[in-house]
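FIELD: query
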Amino acid sequence: MEALKSVIQKAARLKRDEGIVHLSSCFQWREFEGDDQRQYIHQEFVYENVMFSVQRGLPWAAVAQIANLSKELLPELRGVKRSEAMSLIQTWLSQCDHLLTPYHHTTMYDFMVKTYIRHQCLYQAFLKKEVNRQCMHSHLEIHVPPHPLPLSEGTDLGVWEKQKALKELMAAETVKLEEIHRLKEQAEAQILSKPQVRLSDLSLEDRLDKQTLESMVRSILQAEVEDVKEILIKEIRASQELLEIRLSQTALHGDGHSSCV
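FIELD: result
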């Protein structure tokens, strides 16, 4: 036991790979003899548990016991379900109870369970020797970027930005012209429709005096003016926006001419 403690103390001062080799020299690894890969994973499992116990400040006697326990435990987990594995780890760790405080026991148990359960599928494949390499091949078509045009055929960035701005303004101008045309048609329809509707409500038999007729005509015209006024305001606003668009176009064209001079 003293020799094992001395080896563990030295392994704790070495780098990981060197520490695994040094710690492994204390044991005979007959469980996976002849299979270097599986044997190394077994040694790695022991090393991780030992180094964790050292980092948590467990007594050296307890650390040495955990080294022996980890070496014997992993092969016993072969084919064991998750719940059974947790119970088995608890049972094996209880062998160290006389060397561990309740806190250290809980800390060590949590680490061993989390380490194993997180990689349970890999450990089981390793224990059952079911590790098979599967190579997947996919044929992917590579699309190379288009070959750039010669610089002589390219467009200056400033010119390109102006052309882009002009296209956007032309599109906005088209939209605004359509809006103005629609508002004009709406105003005309408004003027023609409502008086006819109002007058059609009158019966031929109705007897209207002059004052009543004047009042009716006045109310019809007033309502009509309000409706048309709202449409005209929208049309004026749209016309102002159209003017601003055309002024912007003129300014861009002017910049283009001046840049060419």
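FIELD: remark
The radius of gyration is 45 Å.
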